[in-house]
């Protein structure tokens, strides 16, 4: 059973065609990493999957529900998707635990006590239970990103989307965030991850998708796409990412 099916997805902004017919699936429990140069359309792809952007044409099906169907209940469908961005977007005036409760109460209509219990469970999962009553500004960037992950998990998503979750972090903080993501993957979460962390993709991904200029150039297991790429564009990208400055 596949959690996500993307079929012939196109997206244009005015005359700029950013996605030029994207096809792929994410099977339930799989981790798919999307890699590719800046501007290749990776963020647009994720934003089309959760309909933050309206695709120009094509289909996005999540758990058998076609999100691109004009009659679909978008809010209900989108609730099944957890999204983690480069920027954490925590409310600065709310404590960590309140940050994780607010959407549970407003969107899922959970009672305050239940929302708090679930918030603390998820904080424990990301190793930050002791920060529950701190404010975001008292946390490092890596800790804030782990809070953002806990916030997404508290909504019981069936799919987690990550858009370069470690790109805004100081290098020494990247490992803790990737560690949380690795644990999620081991626990069986279905994940679609845009990342430049090749070691993570190699070790955690079931499949790696290499995108360039709005198309998928290669899609396969990491040992193939990263370890033995078949296309020159993939090889050139990997050379630049793995050996910057050469
Ligand atoms: N809302 C938008 N309006 C116009 N152009 C956009 C918009 N969002 C993205 N683009 C353009 O689409 C292309 C792909 O962007 P993006 O999906 O962010 O790539 P990536 O995440 O791979 O760096 C870029 O040329 C970018 O300028
Ligand atoms: Mg991007």
Automatic annotation (TrEMBL):
InterPro entries: AAA+_ATPase, ABC_ATPase_HisP-typ, ABC_transporter-like_ATP-bd, ABC_transporter-like_CS, MetN_ABC_transporter-like, P-loop_NTPase. It is found in: Cell membrane. One of its GO terms (cellular component) is plasma membrane. Its EC number is 7.4.2.1. The keyword Ribonucleoprotein does not apply. The keyword Cell membrane applies. Signal peptide: none annotated. Keywords: Amino-acid transport, ATP-binding, Cell membrane, Membrane, Nucleotide-binding, Transport. Residues 4-238 form the ABC transporter domain. One of its GO terms (molecular function) is ATP binding. SMART domains: AAA (SM00382). It catalyses: a polar amino acid(out) + ATP + H2O = a polar amino acid(in) + ADP + phosphate + H(+). It is a peripheral membrane protein. Belongs to the ABC transporter superfamily. This is ABC-type polar-amino-acid transporter. It comes from Sphaerimonospora thailandensis.
């Amino acid at each position: 059973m596949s959690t996500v099916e993307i079929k012939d997805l196109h997206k244009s902004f005015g005359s700029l065609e950013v996605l030029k017919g994207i096809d792929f699936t994410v099977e339930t429990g799989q981790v798919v990493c999307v890699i590719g140069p800046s501007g290749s359309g990776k963020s647009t792809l994720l934003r089309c999957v959760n309909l933050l952007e309206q695709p120009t044409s094509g289909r996005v099906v999540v758990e058998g529900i076609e999100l691109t169907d004009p009659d679909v209940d978008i809010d209900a469908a989108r609730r099944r998707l957890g999204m983690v961005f480069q920027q954490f977007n925590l409310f600065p005036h709310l404590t960590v635990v309140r940050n994780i409760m607010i959407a549970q109460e407003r969107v899922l209509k959970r009672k305050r006590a239940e929302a708090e219990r679930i918030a603390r469970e998820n904080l424990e999962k990301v190793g930050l239970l002791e920060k529950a009553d701190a404010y975001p500004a008292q946390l490092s960037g890596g800790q804030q990103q782990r809070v953002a992950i806990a916030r997404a998990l508290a909504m019981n998503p069936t799919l987690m989307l990550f858009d370069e979750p470690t790109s805004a972090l100081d290098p020494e903080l990247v490992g803790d965030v990737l560690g949380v993501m690795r644990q999620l993957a081991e626990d069986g979460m279905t994940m679609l991850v845009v990342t430049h962390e090749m070691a993570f993709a190699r070790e955690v991904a079931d499949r790696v998708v290499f995108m360039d200029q709005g198309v998928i150039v290669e899609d396969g297991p990491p040992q193939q796409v990263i370890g033995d790429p078949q296309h020159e564009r993939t090889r050139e990208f990997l050379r630049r990412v793995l050996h910057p400055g050469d």
